[in-house]
Amino acid sequence: GDHTKISVNTRNVFIECTGTDITKAKIVLDIMVTMFSEYCEKPFSVEAAEVVYPNGKTHIYPELAYRKEKVKPELINKKIGISETPSSLAKLLTRMCLKSHVVGNGNSIEIEIPPTRADIIHACDIVEDAAIAYGYNNIQMTIPKTYTIANQLPLNKLTELLRLDLAAAGFTEALTFALCSQEDIADKLGMDISATKAVRIANPKTAEFQVARTTLLPGLLKTIAANRKMPLPLKLFEISDVVVKDPDTDVGARNYRHFCAVYYNKSPGFEIIHGLLDRVMQLLEVPPNEENGYTIKATEGSAFFPGRCAEVFARGQSIGKLGVLHPDVITKFELTMPCSALEINIEPFM
Fold it and tell me: Which parts of the sequence belong to the B5 domain (predicted)?
C-alpha cells in the first residue's frame, strides 16, 4: 500500500476497477478515467489497457463510448410545458454537457451523450436535463385542462378518523408488519394454515416473513410480548390491511381493512373490549338493533375461550369477532395474563 501511494510527485496512475456487474464496472471506470484525464500532461488523454478474459478473449478498456440520440423539439416542449425554438433547446442541452445540434429542417435535435453521462438512459432523461437548464422556476405555472383535484380515498379518511377516536378512548396505536410466519396466523391461533386462505411468499428470506397476514391479532400480541415490562393494563389497537386469497380478482388476492384491539391485564376485561365495540359503532352511527344496526351473538372461535366469544353482525352480515383469548393462544405468544380481543372488518361501513 505504501509503495503505490499517490503523492504530488506521482506521474503515472493506473486505474483498476472490479465489480460483480460488468456494466456498472464500465461506468465507474469511464467516470474515474475521464476525471483523472483532466489533469494529464496532455489534457483529456488516456492510455487504454488490454484485458484478457479467462476464456482467452481480449478487450480494450476503457471503452469511453459516445452515442447519439435524436429527440423531437416538440416532445421536449410538450413534456416540460414551454415553447422554445429547436436551436435554443439545443443550446440548453449543450450547457448540460450534452453536445446538441438541430438536424432535419429543425424537426429533430441530435444529442451526443458522452461516457461521463451514464445516467442518460432514455429520452425522458434528456427532457429532464433540458428542464434543469431552462430552470424549473422559469416554467410558467398553469392549471391543467383536465380536472385533477385530488381527494382522500374514503376508506383512508374513515381509518384516519377512527384512529383519532380510538386513541381518545385510551388505546395506543401499533403498526405491525404486514408479513408474518405461518405459525402466527395458524398454529398459534389453533387453526389450520389451509383454512386461513393466506397468501404465501414463494421464497421467504426469514421464518418471520412467510405469509401475508390474514388477521391483525398476532401482530398486536407480539407487540404486547415485546412490552411485558410496561405497566398494566396494555391497551393496543391497529387499523390496517389484511390479505386473503380470492380467485375472482385479477391478482388472485384481496385486501380488507381490519380494525383490531387488544386488552391485556390481570383480569380479561371483556367488558372493556365490548365497550370499545359499542363506541366504534356509535362513531360509525350504527344503532344497536338487528334490522339496520349491529348485534353480537354467542359463537365459538379456535382462538377464543369456550363460552367467551361472540360474533359481531352489522346490517345482517358477519364482520368479525370479539372475546377472551384462549389460554393456549396466550401461552403460545409468550404472554402470562388474560387477554381479550376484538377484530372487525370496517369496509362494510363505507
Answer: 64-141
Q: Given this model, what pLDDT does residue 84 score? A: 92
pLDDT digits (tens, 9 = 90+) for 40-68: 999 999 999 999 999 999 999 999 999 99
Q: Where are the domains of the chain?
A: 2-61, 67-138, 154-349
Q: Give 298-317 as a DSSP string.
A: E---TTEEEEEEEEEEETTE
Alpha carbons 75 and 69: distance in angstroms, whole number: 14
Encode pLDDT of 261-275 as tens digits.
Answer: 999 999 988 999 999
Q: What is the CATH number of domain 67-138?
A: 3.30.56.10
Amino acid making up residue 71: V
154 Cβ contact partners less than 8 Å away, ≥ 6 residues apart: 350
Separation between Cα atoms, residue 189 and residue 162, nearest integer Å: 27
Architecture of the structural domain at 154-349 = 2-Layer Sandwich (3.30)
Q: Which residues contact 143 (CB under 8 A, 6 or more apart)?
A: none
Using an 8 Å Cβ cutoff, are 249 and 243 in contact?
no
Q: What share of the chain is helix, strand, coil (3-state, %, to 5)?
A: 30, 25, 45
Strands 234-245 and 253-264, by their bridges, are antiparallel
The whole-angstrom separation of Cα 246 and Cα 240 is 18
Quick check: bond before 327 cis, omega within 30?
A: no
If you search the block for the grid coordinates 373490549, which residue do you land on? Answer: 273
User: Model-level pTM greater than 0.70?
Assistant: no
**What cell numbers appear for 121 in the block?**
438512459
Please compute Rg for the chain using Cα positions: 32
| DSSP secondary structure of 119-164 | T--SHHHHHHHHHHHH-GGGSPP---SS-------HHHHHHHHHHH
For residue 288, the tally of other CB atoms under 10 A from its CB is 11
At 88-145, the pLDDT tens digits run 999 999 999 999 999 988 889 999 999 999 999 999 999 999 999 999 999 998 887 8
* Cβ atoms of 189 and 341 closer than 8 Å: no
